[in-house]
Write a structure and sequence with these properties.
The protein has 71 residues and is mainly beta. It is built from no helices and four strands. The protein has one domain. This is DUF2180 family protein.
């Protein structure tokens, strides 16, 4: 694969949109893998990967999107 931005050899792909990125254009940030409600303390906890590859161009939405057509 080639980098989306410069067409050099890519070393990874964005966790959110899938764009290929080279080491110069890769950014890193948290990615939530799973959200659970604790049964004992009744609070929400998340399993997070700290250094997931991100392209820096896509903008993941901060809130879930309703999809009633899939219900």
């Amino acid at each position: 694969m080639l980098c989306w931005f410069c067409a050099e050899a890519a070393r990874g792909s964005c966790r959110f949109c899938g764009r290929a990125v080279c080491p110069d254009h890769a950014r890193f940030g948290p990615f939530i893998l799973q959200v659970n409600r604790s049964e004992t303390r009744q609070r929400v906890e998340a399993l997070v990967v700290e250094d997931a590859v991100q392209c820096g161009t896509c903008r993941p939405r901060p809130h879930p999107v309703a999809m009633p057509e899939l219900d």
